[in-house]
Amino acid sequence: MNNIIGIIVSIIYIGMILVSSKVFEKNGKEASRKYTHIMLSNWWIIAMIFFDNWIWASIMPLAFVFINFFSYKYNIIKVMERDVGDENKDSLGTVYYAISLFVLAIITFGIINNPAIGLCGIIVMGYGDGLAAVVGQAVKSKQFRINGNKKSVAGCLAMFLVTFMIIAGYLTYIGSSAIFIKAICVAIFMTIVEAISIKGTDNITVPIITSLLMLILA
Predict the structure, then answer these.
(1) End-to-end CA distance of the chain
(2) Pick the residue with more confidence: 6 or 30?
(3) 3-state secondary structure of 113
(4) Cα separation of 24 and 135, whole Å?
(5) Of 95, 122, 145, 205, which sits most exposed with the smallest number of CB within 10 A?
(6) pLDDT digit string (tens) for 47-91?
(7) Is 59 helix (H, G, I), strand (E, B) or coil?
(8) Are 41 and 122 in contact, with CB atoms under 8 Å apart?
(9) Model confidence pLDDT, tens digit, residues 128-150
(10) Measured CA angle at 151 (ends 147, 153), to 5 deg
(11) Helix (H) or strand (E) run with residue 112 in it
């Protein structure tokens, strides 16, 4: 019964995010996109509360692999899609986002039976990557291009700090050793990974590599 309730709660939560993201459109399309990007990462907590196996946990992500693809092709869910003329318009980032959720649901709810590992990866992607873009636009700092991606010092610093706090928090919670060293190394590495990932692939590389590092280091 909890699994069915989880699906219902998931649908309601995602619907609320998509509706509320309209509020941020007055600050530009990118603001509403990043709000959606960040808030959707919290869905993993719902999954951990309600779903007791990988099959149920993967239903919503798998559904949104297809929903996001058709939205990308036909601009169905407008708050998630980039405007025409955006240099990243051809990015399948929203599809990659759902794929990473699907893959990590199978691995962490099923194979290793530790959804908290997946939570680290998804939250780093949602908040780290999301806030990096927000801070990068809001704070004036030196900008540069790496691997074709437009980045800023402020944005990279935000990615580093958010990742560090998330990883340090998780390692502290599980009682790991050498927390500061592990957290700072992961934060540096994931900041680089996020910076060099092209055309929205950071929505796959960041969560999956972060989760893998947590599996190894925790």
Answers:
(1) 33
(2) 6
(3) coil
(4) 15
(5) 145
(6) 999 999 999 999 999 999 999 999 888 888 777 776 644 555 567
(7) helix
(8) yes
(9) 999 999 999 889 899 999 888 88
(10) 125
(11) none
